[in-house]
Every structure is written in C-alpha cells, then in structure tokens.
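Minutes, project check-in
Item: structure for the 234-residue chain
Input as provided by the requester:
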Amino acid sequence: MPLGKVLIIDEDKNCCNTLKASLEKDGYSVILSHDGDEALIKFNALKPDIILLDVVIPKTDGWQICREVRKKSNIPLIIITSKSETFDKVLGLELGADDYIVKPFDIKEVMARIKAVNRRVNQSNIIETREVTYDNLIVNMSKYELKVNGKTKDAPPKELELLFYLASNPNRVYTRDQLLDEVWGFEYYGDSRTVDVHIKRLREKLDGVSEQWSIKTVWGVGYKFEFNEKFNDI
C-alpha cells in the first residue's frame, strides 16, 4: 500500500524523474506536473498528501501555488528550487512552505526531509489528545487546530508545533538551535532563520489577543512563551 501521494511540480523532467524513482522505491505514489496551471488542477482533483515544488515554472508560478494551496490545506509543502537567495528562502517560508531545498540537491537529503515530515504527521494521528489552553488561545495537536478568541485559525503544521512546544513550556527560554532540534528534528538541514520566520508569522496571528501571554524575544538568546504568573491567582 502506498505511503501517500506526492505531487511533484517542476518543469525539469530529469529532476522529476529522479525524485519519482526514489519516492516510488520507498513506497510513495507520485503525481507529476510541469506547469503551475496543471498543478493546481491536479492538487484540487487528486488531493495529494505532500507537495514538492519548484517556484520557477511556466504559467502560474510557485509562489502563487503556495498561496493557493495554503488557502485550502495544511499538507506538507517542500520547495525545491535553484533560487538560493535569502530573500527567496524567507518568502517561501512566509508563504507557508514547511521546508526549502536548493538545487542541486542530494536525493538522500530530500528523502530524509520527506520522511521527517511524514513521521510528524503520522504521529499526530495516533497520539492522545495534546492541548494547551490560555486566555483566548487553544492549541490542539491531536486535531492540529489553532483557536484564537474562540475561532479556528489556519496555520501550517510547523507553526502549530512551534507554538505548542513553546506554550507547553511557559517562561522557559529556548535558543533557535534548540527549537530546530525539538520542533524540526535532527533531520533538518536548514538554518536558524527558519525559526525567526515562523515566529514572525505566529505573532501576526496572535498580536493583541491577550495581555496574559505573548511570544517574547530574548535578545542574544532566542524565544519564550511568556505567561504572567499573576493570572494564576485570578
């Protein structure tokens, strides 16, 4: 039985075939698309479990595909592209990508990242209810659900995992490297900027929600979920 459906979106057919061969060898079912318009049709019709995406593709570009996918789904999305500038990496993460790999890539690295993403998703389906609750905030990792002021908010899996980890350990400061290890796992090959981007996106969702808690920057160290202890007595 296939592990899941992977949609590969890339104009480079050699790249597609390399990824396809490794994925199918590991037991995945693979869907190929060589332009953005076709990719969105296949995404909507075939409901893939993972997307591997180059941003430099004909017709609808990869950035717009990220936007369209994130309007409808939080499935793992990994950008694999030759665009290596820091601006491009940050943009990809801000648009909801879970990871960013620069070509030329090592196929073993790509497979390790895919497996890490799948492992996190599979674990979330079998664990008992895990939930943290604060004033106007609920993070439920069994449902991968974020509620703010009683309303469900869309958030990619990595944002939820990062918020849950910090909120489960209030007032404890973590370095960026610690968060990469704990939330992304030892398989992650990126840099600490990934943490900064996800924190920025979380703050945009949570700004002004409560006076009781906030995500704080500890300059020169990292981040913490700050909870004002005085509210324990209220």
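Outcome recorded: The mean pLDDT is 87.
No further action items on this chain.
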